[in-house]
C-alpha cells in the first residue's frame, strides 16, 4: 500500500492522530479502499490513558458511548473506566487492521508549490500525501486564564494534569470551572476529605436519568445531539455531567453544597493573595436548574406525544433548599486564611494547529471548514466541537463526521482519476 522512495513515504491520505477520530477516519477510508496511513505521536487513544484523572469513567453508558461496529463487553448500562475506553479503541483498530503507526509525531504540514499534495515532516522522516486529515483532538492545549495568580506557595494545575487527591498538598482546594471535569474533580476531592471551593459559571445540567432513560437517550430522541449550532448566547455554557455515580449521578449543585463543597460564582481576579468571585452564583445555579427542568418538561411531552409507557417520576422535580453558600455568597476569599493550598483550573482546552501550515484557517486562526472539509483543498478536520453538530466531539458523533469526510475524499479521488475520452 505504501511505496517508499528513498526516505519519503508516499500515501494518498495521511491521518494525524489516533484517538477516536483518527480510528473512525481509518475505518471509513478502509471501507472505501482509500490508501491511507495514521500517524500517532504516542499510543492509540493516548489521551484517555495519560491525560485524564485516574477515576474517570465515560460520561455516557456503554450502550451509547461507542462506535456502531463494536460493543463494550459486560453491562451495557455501565459507565466504562477510562483505561477500558482506550483499550476499546485499540481493539477497534485491530478489528479492521488499521494502518496506524504509533510513536511518530507530525511536525509540519505544507502544501507543495510545484506539484499537487502536501509534504509532511515527521519525527521519522518525510511523507508525501495527496490529502491530510487533522484528527489531533478537540482538547489539545489546556487553557489556564491570565487571571491565574503568580503567588508563590500555591500549587496550580490544569484539570488535564489532575490524577487523584493524593497528588495535592495538604490543605483546601479551589476548583475553577464547574463543567464535567470541574464538578467530578471537586466531588472526588471533597469525598477524600478536602475542603473544596468550586467556582461555578453558566452550565447545563441534564438529569443523569429520568423516567428510566439516561439523558443521552433523551438528548438523542429530542434531537439535541444533532443540533447544528450552539443556541445564541450559550457559547460560554458548559455541560455538567458525570458517570461516576452511575444512574444516580445527576449533577446537582445544591446537593454538592450540602455534601460540604462551598460554591462560589465565576472567578474574577486574584489580588495580593485574595481571590474575588462574581456575584452570579445564584443566577448560574438557577440557570442550570432551569435547563434541568426544561429537559424534564421536554421528556414528559415526548412521552405523552408518543404514548410511551415509562414510569412517572415526580420526585425528580423536588429541589433541595438553598445552601448557605447560595444565600450568603462568598465574594472574596483570602487564600491563606481559607487554608487553600492548591488551585485546579478546570477551564477547558484550545486547539493547536501551529504545525499545519496551510490555508485552512479564518482571520481569527480558527479552522475554516464545512463539516470538516476545509478551505484548503485536500485538508480536513475531524473531531472538533460542533464540526457538524453537538455530538461531533463525542465517541458516537465523530464516527458519523468521519464517514462524511471519507466520502468526500473518495469522491475527490474519483475526480482525480477521471480521464476524458481523448486520454483513454
Ligand atoms: C475529561 C474528558 C472526558 C470525556 N469523556 C467523554 C465521554 O465519556 N464520552 C465521549 O463521547 N466523549 C468524552 N470526551 C470527549 C472526547 O470523546 C474526547 O475528548 C476524545 O479524546 C476526543 O477524541 P479525538 O480522537 O478527537 O482526539 P484525541 O483523543 O485528543 O486524539 C488525538 C490524538 O492525536 C495525537 N496527536 C496530536 N498531535 C499530533 C501530532 N502532531 N502528530 C501525531 N499525533 C498527534 C494525540 O497524541 C492524540 O492521541 C471527554 C473529554 C474529556 C476532556
From TrEMBL:
Domain of life from the UniProt record: Bacteria
Coiled-coil residue windows: none
One Pfam entry name: Pyr_redox_3
Molecular function in Gene Ontology: flavin adenine dinucleotide binding; monooxygenase activity
Keyword list, A-Z: Oxidoreductase
InterPro entries noted in UniProt: Auxin_biosynth/cation_transpt (IPR050982), FAD/NAD-bd_sf (IPR036188)
Name of the protein: FAD-dependent oxidoreductase
Species of the source: Amphritea balenae
Amino acid at each position: 500500500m505504501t511505496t517508499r522512495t528513498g526516505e519519503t513515504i508516499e500515501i494518498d491520505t495521511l491521518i494525524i492522530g489516533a484517538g477516536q477520530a483518527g480510528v473512525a477516519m481509518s475505518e471509513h477510508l478502509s471501507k472505501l479502499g482509500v490508501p491511507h496511513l495514521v500517524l500517532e505521536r504516542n499510543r492509540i487513544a493516548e489521551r484517555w490513558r495519560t491525560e485524564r484523572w485516574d477515576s474517570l469513567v465515560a460520561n455516557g453508558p456503554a450502550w451509547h458511548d461507542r462506535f456502531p461496529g463494536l460493543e463494550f463487553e459486560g453491562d451495557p448500562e455501565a459507565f466504562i473506566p477510562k483505561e477500558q475506553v482506550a483499550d476499546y479503541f485499540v481493539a477497534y483498530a485491530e478489528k479492521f487492521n488499521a494502518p496506524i503507526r504509533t510513536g511518530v509525531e507530525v511536525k509540519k504540514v505544507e502544501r507543495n508549490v510545484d506539484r499537487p499534495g502536501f509534504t509532511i515532516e515527521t519525527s521519522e522522516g518525510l511523507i508525501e500525501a495527496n490529502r491530510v486529515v487533522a484528527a489531533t483532538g478537540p482538547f489539545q492545549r489546556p487553557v489556564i486564564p491570565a487571571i491565574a495568580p503568580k503567588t508563590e506557595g500555591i500549587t496550580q494545575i490544569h484539570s488535564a494534569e489532575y490524577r487523584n487527591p493524593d497528588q495535592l498538598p495538604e490543605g483546601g482546594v479551589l476548583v475553577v470551572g464547574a463543567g464535567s471535569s470541574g464538578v467530578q474533580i471537586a466531588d472526588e476531592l471533597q469525598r477524600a476529605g478536602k475542603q473544596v471551593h468550586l467556582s461555578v459559571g453558566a452550565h447545563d445540567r441534564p438529569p443523569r436519568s429520568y423516567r428510566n432513560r439516561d439523558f443521552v437517550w433523551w438528548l438523542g430522541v429530542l434531537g439535541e445531539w444533532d443540533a447544528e449550532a450552539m443556541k445564541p448566547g450559550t457559547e460560554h455554557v458548559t455541560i455538567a455531567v458525570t458517570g461516576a455515580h452511575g444512574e444516580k449521578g445527576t449533577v446537582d449543585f445544591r446537593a454538592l453544597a450540602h455534601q460540604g463543597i462551598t460554591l462560589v460564582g465565576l472567578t474574577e481576579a486574584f489580588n495580593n493573595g485574595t481571590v474575588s468571585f462574581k456575584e452570579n452564583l445564584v443566577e448560574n445555579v438557577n440557570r442550570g436548574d432551569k435547563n434541568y427542568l426544561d429537559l424534564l418538561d421536554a421528556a414528559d411531552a415526548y412521552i405523552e406525544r408518543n404514548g410511551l409507557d415509562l414510569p412517572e417520576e415526580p420526585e425528580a422535580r423536588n429541589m433541595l433548599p438553598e445552601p448557605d453558600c447560595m444565600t450568603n455568597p462568598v465574594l472574596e476569599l483570602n487564600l491563606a486564611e481559607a487554608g487553600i493550598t492548591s488551585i485546579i483550573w478546570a477551564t477547558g482546552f484550545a486547539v493547536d494547529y501551529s504545525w499545519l501550515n496551510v490555508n485552512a484557517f479564518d482571520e481569527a486562526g480558527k479552522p475554516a471548514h464545512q463539516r470538516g472539509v476545509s478551505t484548503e483543498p485536500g485538508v480536513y478536520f475531524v473531531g472538533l466541537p460542533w464540526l457538524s453538530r453537538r455530538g461531533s466531539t463525542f465517541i458516537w458523533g465523530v464516527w458519523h463526521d468521519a464517514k462524511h469526510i471519507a466520502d468526500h475524499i473518495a469522491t475527490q479521488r474519483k475526480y482525480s482519476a477521471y480521464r476524458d475520452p481523448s486520454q483513454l
